[in-house]
Amino acid sequence: MSRTKYIFVLGGVASSLGKGIISASLAKLLQSRGFSVALQKLDPYINVDPGTLNPYEHGECYVTEDGAETDLDLGHYERFSNVPTSQANNVTTGSIYQTVIEKERKGDYLGHTVQVIPHITDEIKRRIMLLGNTGKYDFVITEIGGTVGDIESLPYIETVRQMRWELGRDCCVIHLTLVPYLSAAGELKTKPTQHSVKTLLESGVQPDIIVCRTERPLYPGLKDKIALFCNVETSSVIESLDAKTIYEVPIMMRQENLDAEVLRKTMMPLDNQPDLKKWEEFLYKLSNPSDEVTIGLVGKYVELKDAYKSINESFIHASAENECKVNVKLIHSEHIENSNVEKTLEGLQGILVAPGFGERGIEGKISAINFARTRMIPFFGICLGMQCAVIEFARSVLDLRSAHSTEMNPNTKFPVIDLMEEQKKIKGMGGTMRLGTYPCKLNKGSKVYEIYQTMNISERHRHRYEFNNAYMVDFENAGMVAAGINPEDNLVEIVEIPDHPWFVGVQFHPEYKSTVAKPHPLFVDFIKAAMEYKAKKEK
Ligand code: GLN
Fold this sequence. Notes:
Layout: E1 5-11, H1 19-31, E2 37-43, H2 55-58, E3 62-63, E4 69-70, H3 73-81, E5 90-92, H4 93-106, H5 116-132, E6 139-144, H6 154-167, E7 171-178, E8 181-182, E9 187-188, H7 191-202, E10 209-214, H8 222-230, E11 237-241, H9 249-255, H10 258-265, H11 277-287, E12 291-299, H12 309-322, E13 324-332, H13 341-345, E14 350-353, H14 362-374, E15 379-382, H15 384-396, E16 404-405, E17 415-419, E18 434-442, H16 447-452, E19 456-463, E20 465-467, H17 472-478, E21 481-485, E22 492-496, E23 503-506, H18 521-538
The structure holds glutamine (GLN).
């Protein structure tokens, strides 16, 4: 194999232009030409990882197989490329400094002054090369968070400058900018792009390719103009129009030749054409549904687009698989009460209660579950959603009226959800939950066994509390069963109500593992159940 090529994706002009989607789309295109690709995100904030950030700050926290709490862009990487990411795929300034300071304390710098250049930039470089040095990848695509010109991005841009200089054609810099449309002038404006490239040039970085995010097609001559002002070839100016769905972006980037341009710049063979048949099939099914259902997503972060990113994307994958449009109705758990639950949830064909932490909105979640359980509406509980299902069952069916999780009420008389033994001695918050992949053994005869079609599964976790096994017999006798158990420590991973058409609560997060190539079976089957529920109701 030839040496690994390093591709950097930097953003300019504004944030939220979709660097993650462009990176993931490029990865998909290179992959579909037979290359192996790793994707990585460098985040300039000082948190060691995003695990301690609340969703208002940073959207969803995405968890990898090896238990890293990472940026949600890693979710896009996996959903597009179907390759699992790991700790090495997400780096923050906090983690860089932590390593450098630990080395300094050990005396590794032998009396030298420790500085941003070279020590911090060397550590950034080491983290980038870590993936390339595995020898497994033709390409490592590294997305740099933030926007060119930010103070905190400077060490990263400097690292890009050094690597571009050291690696020559084994390295390529893509700059994603915004070309805004001014309606008063009736024109698309290239000046912000020119300025952004100038800012990059001040740091010694000349982009090789400029991707222009725009809400209107770039009219003839505009690419030439950007090329002239920004020292790139016209073929290296790529239009990135707003897309109907993020999953269209690889196709759009293919039409704009982004992949070919990267291959040309890095002197890689262009002989293999991308094979996007499966991807196109997925898009076709997504846009030609023959049915439609509405699912209520009950959570406390509903005003935030990115808080339940992976759940929303999993619904899209399940939608294509079932050829059924899935409307996700976000319902604020704080707004649900026993008195309005019927009105709030009527007309839904399925209810998903979301993961979460803390007390806020908890009673609304429990009311929603009671509604789904007693009205026989398909119900899917994820992590806190599963724990709430257990609490609801304890209160309404076992008649343990004050049952709760000790997370919300440490003094509850009936702690049906309790802190895991291994969590009891933990004091620090960062990276200390039960994180990452654990095995789970399914009960033959359970619904989940039917769905997964196998007895042994593994799924990703992010929690501190668990089903309290002291109550197991009472629950099972009353009709809520443990359908999946961790075979090593007996933790309940899945609860089910066999007498209900579809009532499944999972302690893990299936949404982290759903990809375009492999939609998650639980989401697929949940939508199927919603379609059946709808058909039955219509009869
Ligand atoms: N707060 C719960 C726990 O820590 C659930 C966590 C979650 O939903 N991710 O166990």
